[in-house]
Amino acid sequence: MNRHITTPLTQETARELRAGDVVTISGTVYTARDAAHKRMIETLDRGEKLPIDVKNTILYYLGPSPAREGRPIGSAGPTTASRMDRYAPRLLNLGLTGMIAKGRRNEEVRQAMMRNGAVYFAAVGGAGALLSKRILESEVVAYEDLGPEAIRKLTVENLPVIVVLDAEGNNLYETAPEKYRKDI
What we know:
Elements: E1 2-6, H1 11-16, E2 22-31, H2 34-45, E3 58-60, H3 88-93, E4 98-101, H4 107-116, E5 119-122, H5 128-132, E6 135-142, E7 151-165, H6 172-183
Parallel strand pairs: 1-2, 2-3, 3-4, 4-5
Antiparallel strand pairs: 2-7, 5-7, 6-7
């Protein structure tokens, strides 16, 4: 099914999405990669407040290249999700409802997504230059010292993604190869 969603991404909307749905996203999305995730967890461990409210938020695992003149951001291709797997369950428990990246997630993340009504989207790796054209604004909002791994607030319009892992635990990385083998 093709869907268009506008952020914030509520649990209700996330629970309606199914693995294999093609989705376009408009609104606010935040970026965070390894270093930012690590720092967020350290912040929580100290009992402090995160620099962004993750409730009903989508995190795009992205470390953009420098912006060309006249553009808000450089190439905006997804990072491999598994590097954030050790941090994701804690953020999901705080209300994070969406993640964008590439690659598989572990079972702990899958269980946390099901428990919290969240969804994992894949963006096409290698298409960062094209994806960046869907980003209208980019502003560093936390951890500026991390450079490309700082947390950025993005304004996106019709950012194309595919639901890979839905809130029911359905995993396109498992079902698509099975379907492909059957179709051959």
